[in-house]
Amino acid sequence: MATPSAAGLGRRLRAWLPRIMPVRWSRYNPSYLEPEAKKELYQKPLEELTDEEREQMELKAVRPIKAAPPTLSSSVFSDPMISKFTNMMMKSGNKVLARSLMSQTLEAIKRKQLEKYHKAPENEKETIECNPYVIFHQALKNCQPIIGLSNITKGGKTYQVPVPLTDNRKRFLAMKWMITECRENKHRRMMMPEKLSQELLLAFNNEGPVIKKKHVLHKMAEANRAYAHFRWW
Amino acid sequence: QLDRGCALHTAARAGLSSVPTRDVPAERPRAVFHTSESDPAKHTEQHEGRLYSIPLEEVKAVFPHGLPHRFQQQIQTFHEARVMVRRPALELLAYLRSSNLAHPAVRYVIYGERGTGKTMTLCHVVHYCWRQGWLVLHVPDAHLWVKNCKELLQSSYNKDRLDQPLQASVWLKNFKTSNERFLREMKTQKKYTWGKRESTEEGRPLGEVVEQGLARVRSASDAVGVLLREVRLQSHRGSCRLLVAVDSVNALWGQTTLRREDKSPVSPEELTLVHNLRKMLRNDWSGGAIVTTLSQTGSLFKPSSAYTPHELLGKEGFDALDPFVPIPVGNYSAKEFESCYGYYLERKWLQHEKAHTEDGKAELQFLSGSNPRQLDRLAGPL
């Protein structure tokens, strides 16, 4: 690590390493900065930058930058939620297939909605949403549970205790339920994009099996609210 | 929505400013890349880069088979069929207009890289000829005749050849839909015997030959052969003008993936359909034209980088088709790209918010490389 600053900087910034290492950790020296993919930041003239951004730009001149991961994209069409969903749909690292399935799903949603749009009378046309990204985000938002259950063992017995969920966990559960539902409950010959587009459209209208699963979870949590005080965090 | 229209107006105007706008109403920016001229006979360089629409009833009549699958889906989603007028098609139409029908049929071969619009150019020419009253013999994809054939029968007419009843009957059904008028008017010149008890007399309308092929599926390939022969003789005599439009013609001179029951490979000339079609593609008849397309996409045993006539046809095919007029088809020019992009925006096909911005458009142009198929695939999920 040939940093231009003195060895003292390296020693100060080297993290304290605990004896037990967690599974997901980074080998990068803390002096490494994250790569910036957005073009707008570099196209802004110097005067418009705020003080923090100016400091950040100066820091980039001296500090090394981490390697960009393959999922980082500078495209204007890239969406982090879609990438996450694609990764969850991927099997044995076949990202090409997962991505093509995702694009076919979005196209299928768009086609169905456009056909409905063209057939509808004039006054109903504004109510029909044709943007597949809006439908995708709204559907997943509708599928997110508000409260979850966790197993807590007390006095030898395991109880299902209602517990608040973090945003990440909610998003993960919504996506996981959607993918499992589409993989399991479909006809053998039906293609994944078709089934996924069907389920996403149902979830967008707050119908369908995934929303039902969320409601079942909420009801269980409501039924077990007596054990809520078992939670200590 | 209003500023989207204005931005489109200025952007498209910049691209199409050299074109006189005599058929464009000034208030509607959408019509800058559309043209109301739906008769291909009247298409000139002024219409280059614009989209003309084919009425849906005509689409069903002219193209029972032959349109690419993605285009058929697009027709269903947008409820209209819009085809872009491009330079190779205009060139071909000019040649057809000025061709002398007394001379032997000229062969045109449309070639180009993958996804550049060869099949759509062929469809434009087919529409023009149909409108002009020609008899159109459209073979949508010759590759379908040399692969994935479930039933191969030994031909009763010639012991060495093999019949394909399913493919032949499907083709006859589609031929009937587009050419009913000719099948009623044209008469057979010879007596044809189909079996011990069935025969078609001389002087009967050709529709009966087609009915025979559809009813007795075993003799469908022979019916196709008879039809091709009759039509060729009649156009040679001058009673009608004939257009032979064959997509993916390189299938006729390549290899097949079909095998006989004893697992020996079948070469294309041993198939009745291919043999008869090859006879049509010879330039020993007059009174029409032969327009063909090369295609690597469905081809067998050809590398994916091959697109020139010599690579795809091989020595045998090139010698059989030589002399021909080659017509190269390339990617979209800047004007055509603007036109296609504007059409997608207008039909609400590009739904992503960023797709309406200049950055989005530049990214689409860069990622697709102005290739029509890539642009269509990219714009699908957006």
TrEMBL record, chain A:
Q: What's the main place this protein lives?
A: mitochondrion
Gene Ontology annotations for the cellular component aspect, listed alphabetically: mitochondrial inner membrane; mitochondrial small ribosomal subunit
List where in the cell it is found. Answer: Mitochondrion
Residue ranges annotated for the Small ribosomal subunit protein uS7 domain, each copy included: 68-225
Pfam families per the UniProt record, alphabetical: Ribosomal_S7
Highest taxon above the source species? Eukaryota
Keyword terms of this UniProt record: Mitochondrion, Ribonucleoprotein, Ribosomal protein, Transit peptide
Concerning InterPro entries, the annotation shows: Ribosomal_uS7, Ribosomal_uS7_dom, Ribosomal_uS7_dom_sf
- Tell me, which GO biological process terms does this entry list? translation
UniProt record similarity statement: Belongs to the universal ribosomal protein uS7 family.
Q: What is this protein called?
A: Small ribosomal subunit protein uS7m
Organism of this sequence:
Platysteira castanea
UniProtKB/TrEMBL annotation, chain B:
Q: Check the record and name the SUPFAM superfamilies matching this protein.
A: P-loop containing nucleoside triphosphate hydrolases (SSF52540)
Residues of the region (Disordered) are 17-47
Compositionally biased residues, Basic and acidic residues = 24-47
Under the heading Pfam families, the entry gives: DAP3
Q: Where in the cell is it found?
A: Mitochondrion
Q: Which UniProt keywords apply?
A: Mitochondrion, Ribonucleoprotein, Ribosomal protein, Transit peptide
Q: Which GO terms describe its molecular function?
A: structural constituent of ribosome
Q: Where does it primarily localize?
A: mitochondrion
**Swiss-Prot/TrEMBL GO biological process terms:** apoptotic process
First and last residue of the signal peptide: none
Any one GO CC term of this protein is: mitochondrial small ribosomal subunit
Q: Which InterPro entries match?
A: P-loop_NTPase (IPR027417), Ribosomal_mS29 (IPR019368), Ribosomal_mS29_met (IPR008092)
Which family does the UniProt entry place this protein in?
Belongs to the mitochondrion-specific ribosomal protein mS29 family.
Q: What is this protein called?
A: Small ribosomal subunit protein mS29
Name its species: Platysteira castanea
In the UniProt record, the gene name given for this protein reads Dap3
